[in-house]
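Subject: sequence -> structure tokens, single chain

Hey, anyone have a minute? Need the predicted structure for the following. Not urgent.
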Amino acid sequence: MSEAQKRAHAKYSLKAYDRLEIIVKKGSKDELKAHAAEQGESLNGFVNRAMMEAMERDRQAKHMEGKQ
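Reply:
Had a minute. Here:
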């Protein structure tokens, strides 16, 4: 990838994505990366999927609470 392509990609990423920083206990990062790899995902992909699935479960639980 040329330097110009790298700059263009970085500029696009700044516009298109929000960044989050998460902090985990020492050693947890390696465990998370290994688990993600076992699932065929990057660490970022795994974290994104986990967050989306948790939000969907929370929505469903809240919806079910409203039916009681």
